[in-house]
Protein: homocysteine desulfhydrase
Organism: Streptomyces marianii
Amino acid sequence: METAASNAPAPTRALATEAVHAGREDLVEQGLHAAPIDLSTTYPSHDIEAEAARIDAFAATGGRLDGPPVYARLDNPTTARFETALARLEGTDSAVAFASGMAALTAVLLVRASMGLRHVVAVRPLYGCSDHLLESGLLGTEVTWTDPAGVAAAIRPDTGLVMVETPANPTLAEADIAALAHSCGSVPLLVDNTFATPVLQRPVEQGARIVLHSATKYLGGHGDVMGGVVACDEEFAAALRQVRFATGGVLHPMAGYLLLRGLSTLPVRVRAASVTAADLARRLAADPRVARVHYPSVGGAMVSFEVYGNPRDVIAGVRLITPAVSLGSVDTLIQHPASISHRIVAEGDRRAAGVGDRLLRMSVGLEDVEDLWADLCQALSARRAPVRTAGEHAPAPGAAHAVPRAEAPSAPESHPAVR
Ligand SMILES: *Cc1c(COP(=O)(O)O)cnc(C)c1O
């Protein structure tokens, strides 16, 4: 039986060290170098009474089992390594992994709703499907949308959660986590930290109680594994494990293995891509074809920008950059939120949250900055027939094309500052 998953306190080490060692402390002792993958769905036991006691203990507390998991929907040693490592990086007691980011958010909402706390206060913009899950009330929750300043006033006796993304998808708008946590009082604040990752920001240090990740993005980091994870205190983690057991949104152990491997290069990947992203943000802000650039003060590898021309021309024109939804991979991806990632959000709500029709969201990877800039430049200059989709107004004549430098409407200095 593996024991790496224990939450035994480890000496405080730098993030880069934790990224390659957390969750793997027992490997040398076991004569191993790479983490083993345990694909078992069930675990043998000749002792019925001991097994029954362990099941009862889990049902009562949701705590981690001593010894093997009984059944893979309760726990898995490979996934547990990833959970241990992510908790260490976020500075929390525990973490609980799920099949996807949406499965993770679902479990959080169900934990609170099962306590009768069905009301959620949320700050827009959120990731499109998170917005949809709350707005649809699919899980029996009710949402009040507000801006950070309105959070305190929106809280009711039945409010179970305050939810924010910072930097937010896709505008990269930032919220002051400490101020928000203060506004929440005793209501837990959930911060979706998918964009910043614990490399750039640890929300729990600023007063958040729950940190959510779409592990599909930077934690995995290679566009080949889907997962979600919630980092939190052990009390909330226990409740999440019980919901995970009851509803079944478990992470596959192979995904757990890939996510643990992804964590080991997370600091290096995030820092390298952030340098390139900040450089591209500066170049875009000085480019007359670009109306506005959004880049977070916390840094990161995401850049959003609004073009004067038709954003569809840019998507159609990129050659090195991959036109695709999702983010956080080693290669650079670009997408048009109004058409793709935030299509599910009602048009009025989407626009009010700052997600305009000319906004493009780019996830910067590890390619050389000059190659990326060359590709962006040629895509920004591409002239194609304007394509219209439902809900999109026809661009003004001429506006569908890139604005040549000589006709630039304003000097780069007068463009809204990169932020
Ligand atoms: C992708 C994403 C999610 C959803 O995660 P999945 O793994 O796709 O289910 C949630 N929040 C943010 C910020 C995301 O980018």
About this structure: Residues 268-404 form a domain with the Aspartate Aminotransferase, domain 1 fold (CATH 3.90.1150.10). The radius of gyration is 23 Å. Residues 1-8, 389-419 have pLDDT under 50 and may be disordered.
